[in-house]
Amino acid sequence: MPKKIFSFIIVPHHKGKSKSITLSDKALKILAGLAIALFLLLVLFMVDYWTMNVTRQKYKDLMAVNQKQKEKIVHYKQSINQLKTTINHFENYAKKINIMAGLKSPDVLKEVGIGDSNLNETQMSLITQPPSSVDIDNLQQINQKAAGIEKNLTTLVQFFENQSLKLAATPSIWPTKGWVTSAFGWRNDPFTGKRAFHRGIDIATNLGNPVIATADGVVVQTKIEKIGGRTIIISHRGGYTTVYCHLNKFLVRPGKRVKRGDVIGEVGKTGKALGPHLHYEVRVNGKTVNPYYYILEE
User: Fold this and answer.
1) Coil, helix or strand for 102?
2) What is the pLDDT of residues 1-36, one digit of tens each?
3) Model pTM?
4) CATH for 179-294?
5) DSSP class of residue 131?
6) Cα separation of 27 and 227, whole Å?
7) Separation of CA 19 from chain center
């Protein structure tokens, strides 16, 4: 059987001789096979190149995610450190307030969340461990400790809110401005010269100067006495009573509710008085006490 021969004639567009290429059937098949192989190699190369690009992009994305994770870990460590500092701060603060409030003494202050001012070693390790290795129980311990402190501070707030009325009703300021001419205690009576117990303090000042309530309360009595002259008596919460004597004028009536600092009268010299002054008394459950102990102003 004669061999098949294929001829390819190449004709140039410009002037020149045409060329002829003659290939046998076998050679043509070989060339076709090579062309197909080259095409397949080119396709494989393009697929591999595309795959590498996809892989490279995924790698970049993973690197970006990893960087974000690192930043989150750093932020997490900082947050844990700040939480530790905050808890310690509130622990110490709560301790002081508990002691100031008289709820606990320094020796027995072992409330929930009010213990050692430093976190233990396990809790400290949270600061240096990555999030993946953090023990959830330890985080819960920190949260429980913070919750305990919050509960204790809430109790303290309620305590001081309850005490606010008592504090407002405790005499704590000067009833008028002037000079103390006679203190609380034993003295020689200026009229008789005999030793007598003075149940308050005398404040000398100008006639007509304002006299103010030293705490929140209710005016229970306004009266005129032979010795005390015009006198106002105010009842306060907690068993406190304040007495203001020798007034020139009443500016309140019995039953009137007054606030600390309200003007209740004017300084006078009524009753047994050598000159204008205010006789001021503080009584606790009916017993007179030294008013100096209840004056917080300078």
Assistant:
1) coil
2) 556 666 667 777 776 677 777 767 777 778 888 888
3) 0.51
4) 2.70.70.10
5) G
6) 145
7) 96
